[in-house]
Amino acid sequence: MASQIQQSLEQKNAQYASSFKEGHLALPPAKKYAVVTCMDARIDPAAAFGISLGDAHVIRNAGGNARDSIRSLVISEQLLGTNEILLIKHTGCGMLTFKNEDAHAVVEKQLGASGKQELSGLDFQPFPDLEKGVEDDVKFLKESKAIPDSVTITGWVYEVETGKVRKVA
């Protein structure tokens, strides 16, 4: 039996597919850039950042984390020709609210010893300061040997309260 979420997906997709006319788009992004941003459900990258279907790669993870995105960024640039990265973190991010020890304690409580063991070395990569988190991730990308010096990298903060972005790095 399909869950309500699965049923909704099928219904909404049928509506979307009935008028879909973008099957001709090329595999590489037309505007040759990638966006790294948070998986937070309050962020709609296409609407907030003006990204049309086919324009850019949008890479999402907890905190809009550069380290977690490196594999996707290398594929985006080396195999699919992007030449710019916009790293966008946001106000009110959950990654600002805890430390590694806190996350590990929750995992242990909820998943028990097996979860604790499997994730024991995991760095959840929280950050206590939003702007510094953006600056640190931009620095990481600029210093990475996996990202060519020719790639433009900038860092931004999206304000979930207003919908506005501001450049930080």
TrEMBL record:
Its EC number is 4.2.1.1. It comes from the Eukaryota. SUPFAM superfamilies: beta-carbonic anhydrase, cab. Keywords: Lyase, Metal-binding, Zinc. The keyword Coiled coil does not apply. Pfam families: Pro_CA. CDD domains: beta_CA_cladeD (cd03379). It catalyses: hydrogencarbonate + H(+) = CO2 + H2O. Its cofactor is Zn(2+). Reversible hydration of carbon dioxide. Belongs to the beta-class carbonic anhydrase family. This is Carbonic anhydrase. It comes from Lepraria finkii.
